[in-house]
Amino acid sequence: MRRWVRQACLLMATAMLAVGVAHAGGAAASAAAAKGSEMIDRADRIKLSDFDGFSRLLQEVEPMRGQLDNGSAAKLSFLEGWRATWVGEYDKARGLLESVADTAPDAALRVRSLATLINLFGVSHRYEDAFRRLNQMQELLPTVRDSRARFAALGEASQLLSSAGQFDAAEAYAKQMIEDAPPGESECKGMQHLLRARREANRLTAIDPMYLHAVAVCDETGDKVFAATMRADIGAFYLEHKQPQSAIDALAPFRDGLRDMNYATLLSEFDATLASAYLAQDDLASARRFALSAVAGSVRDEFTDPRRIGYKVLYEVEQRVGNAQAALNYHEQYMAADKAYLDDISARSLAFQLVDQQVVARKAEVDTLNKKNEILRLSNALDRKEVETGRLWIFVLGLSLVGIVALVLRLRRSQLRFMRMARRDGLTGICNREHFVEQSERVLAYGARSDRGACLILFDLDHFKNVNDTWGHAVGDEVLKRAVDVCRRALHACDVFGRLGGEEFAVLLPDCSPAQARARAEQLRLSISATSATPSRPELVVTASFGVASTLQCGFELHRLLVVADGALYRAKRSGRNCVFMGDSGDIPDSPYPVAASG
């Protein structure tokens, strides 16, 4: 009996000990979870002002992940994704951020993850993904009450839209940031986005004191990244306006501090601007040093504007010191980077238009579905009424649905057709006059900013009126299309080719010298004259006369290039046609362009 009593007491003591251990373990786990959450919040607060401390906190809290609640674990993943984006580990960052953006229980945290994803996709040139995530963020934003999350989202939206040329929308978001800054935030970040949008839109004529005040506020509040970004824009503005010493004064004193921040992308912007500024002052050693740093600091295997500028400066430095082989090597790298730059600009604009059209189409589909659901609801209500009356209403509503669907499809087709008609010549498929002028002025504006020459070729088909009078307009149209096809095969992807009217055409050649333009025009002339006009009339031979104008003589104003090229074209006509003439100051006719009917 005593043995059984001892065993019962022993079992009871063991159970009580196990309960005590469990309570102690639970208390320890709760304490660890609370400590981890507090460390995550502290890391979030210092990530912009103390990046090294922020990284250490993430390393310390990572072993506690299993003890965190879902909200804290999601926030830890977001901060790890934010850090990976900062240091250029894009694949790792994308996985972490997409998981939070798509599954996190907190809408504010999802918006913050989406904002960082937009930044990541923009930096890595995945513009369609960036604009899709922007639309997702815009849809989610009205449900978010966290003013800081909204503030960050507005900043990323402004930055992305500015990079795609949507400057009005970018400025609107930046102004909203300034007006609705959350407690503890200043106008620093909103002013940085406003400055960049206005500079990229060429709307700045001087550095307003409000921007310098905003830089000082950024420094005071510890927003080092935004202060450095504003200085990068101010330095670039001075350089664009031929003030290299002002650009150096704006950037050089802060360059070493930026390097300590371990922000390679922004440091490359500083170095590229400093390299160009020192080159403008003939300080070749400093220009080479900063250009090499800009190239080395750019994201590996990806195009960046600092890489393009760095190669350009290195090419010009080696050319000035007479190192021909090194200059040639750097020039090849610069040309590849420059082509990627032009392609990147087009990709941003195209991605915005594509995603915007997808959003419009999706809204139309949703509206159609809503109308369909409404029709079904009415149909169910009508089923309770008399059978004959119900059948009549169903028939009417069915016709309405068909009409709505037909209208949506018709509007969609009309929209696409009008977009094509607004930009393309209906007969030849190349740029019409308005689109040619728009594209050419954009290329010339870039050429003026980057000091890269361009040439304009103006040509029309000889005796084209006789072709129409003799063979008819159908054959004339075939001649025009045949000539355009021949020219397309001889032109480059970056050339702007348009039909100005009738049988008159123009080609703008970016980054082209007069000698190269003359050779290109001669190639086009030979190609046209060597090809039969139409398959149905192989005996019909068509030639063309060419006039060439260069920005070296005419400047970067499209109207003057057209006038000078037109004068050269008419000299070619008067000299017997089927030839190429270069334009000069003597080719400006008395009357405005165009001066007479071609033929």
What features would you describe in this structure?
Its EC number is 2.7.7.65. It catalyses: 2 GTP = 3',3'-c-di-GMP + 2 diphosphate. The chain is of the alpha+beta class. It folds into three domains: 41-254 and 324-348, Serine Threonine Protein Phosphatase 5, Tetratricopeptide repeat (Alpha Horseshoe), CATH 1.25.40.10; 354-423; 433-587, Reverse transcriptase/Diguanylate cyclase domain (Alpha-Beta Plaits, 2-Layer Sandwich). Helix content is 72%, strand content 7%. The protein has helices at residues 2-46, 51-61, 70-86, 90-103, 107-123, 127-140, 147-163, 167-179, 188-200, 209-221, 224-240, 244-260, 264-280, 284-297, 305-321, 324-382, 387-423, 433-450, 464-471, 473-490, 514-529, 551-554, 558-574, and strands at 454-461, 496-501, 504-510, 532-534, 537-541, 544-550, 580-582. The strands form two sheets. Strands 2-3-1-6-7 form a five-stranded mixed sheet, with helices on both faces. A two-stranded antiparallel ribbon has the order 4-5. A hairpin with a 2-residue loop joins strand 4 (532-534) and strand 5 (537-541). It is flat, with a radius of gyration of 33 Å. It starts with a helix and ends in a 17-residue tail after the last strand. Residues 588-599 have low confidence and may be disordered.
